[in-house]
Queue: 2 jobs
Job 1
Amino acid sequence: MRVGSGYDVHKLTEGRKLILGGVELPYEKGLLGHSDADVLLHAIMDAMLGAAALGDIGRHFPDNDEAYRGISSLLLLKEVNNLLKEKGFYVVNLDATVIAERPKIAPYVSLMTDKISNMLQIDGSRVNIKGTTTEGLGFCGRGEGIASQATVLIRRRG
């Protein structure tokens, strides 16, 4: 068994959709980034890659590669899962936190869990997503951005 951790941050900006966990949330701002800027999935992917000692998402999906401009991070998550499979690993479980004052993610957690577990081909009971605030402190508290962190346990097949 191996454990990996991931962390990601993106700035909130006007004129973009807010995508978290592969789900579009109704909100007046979205996250700025080369892809869809899904901080939750980016943290999960980095945790998966870290657990398998395969680097990070910047190495596999560089932000200067036009092939990834605007791409759904769900597709990138599927690719990361395939990389782990090629190395003989599978995700046992994951725990992730979205750090934001707003919007509240609780109404969307079930849908996020479904999308992530389907992409990873694991039971939804192995995926835990939660939200927290910073009580108004820092860039997340001021509504300037959203952060996410994740921990993933993987295991070698066989």
Job 2
Amino acid sequence: MTIDAFDPWSAAFVAHPYPAYAALRAQAPVHHYAPTDQWLISRYADVSSLLRDRRLGRTYTHRFTHEEFGRPAPNPAHEAFHILNDHGLLDLEGPDHTRIRRLVSKAFTPRMVESLRPTVRRLAEDLVDGLLAEGGGDLIATVAEPLPVAVIAEMLGVPESDRHLLRPWSADITGMFELNPSEQTARRAVTASIEFSDYLRELIRRRRAAPGPDLISALALAAEDGQVLSEQETVSTCVLLLNAGHEATVNTTGNGWWALLRNPGELARLRGAVDALLPTAIEELMRYDTPLQMFERWVLDDIEVAGVHIPRGAEVALLFGSANRDPERFPDPDRLDLARADNPHITFGAGIHFCLGAPLARLELTESYGALLRKAPGLTLRREPDWRPGYVIRGLKELLVEI
């Protein structure tokens, strides 16, 4: 296998990128990929270090104009998407990121997340009961997708009658995170950005007038030293919670069950000790087939990685999927080991952009996997699944199972 096997638009590569990653780590751990004009970083140590390196950023506009940075300005027709995206925690740097994360953390507390456990457990068990009643079906459509949408909607205070709107908006917006998205993808993302933003603005205004026990009310009222979230920052925070939380949890569930069904010995081991093994199993499933394969950052000052000079203005692509299979950090990395104890995977990122929703994701995964393992001990695969065409956010089209 050579580094030329890295081809994010190839269905074969998306289905099994790990041999190509191994070639990159061995032959060119810092590799300029011409089709996207990015530097691919594939080794764990380098990816982990660069996630914490303040010479890189998710944006550069806090320090440079587009012209100064040598990059074209965004297409004005895509402005609605960029306004929404650029005010979210994931794409902010500097004092704005610190201020907003502190305010969001006042509302999105560990206690608030833990208070959701009974709701998450009930929702997960109800969804699994539905799958059981049908004798099986698409595990992704019936369990993996509805759960995080329902949880986030419950958390935000979105009325049940409106929750069907959230998944299509999320799917259309996150299409822009793929490599070289088409103009059609961009138009769908813009439309979804406008519709979702307008919906949330109205909800925020209602919550400010009559606060409830939901996260939107808490965000609208969060304040510290006279600082509050603007309406746009609140909107962008809510959208980020849905998009990041939903896509990651859905794909971790689907990818993880596909990994378990391909490793029947480990699945039997987990079924025999659900309570004891589930915490480490979830971490291992996130490492083994991470839903976010690539995380991009801009080089704000010249850097050197593994002896390779990368200039200011370049973009690095941190390959999470490769880093999580690096044998320099994970012994026998291609083996699924549900009891793996030393497992510092970077699926949730690192540094200032470490995933704020990690506790909620772990809660949802614990309850979802737990319900399926306990209620469907005979769950088996109906047929081998296909992968969706996206590479950056990587997941299955469906996972058909029988009970």
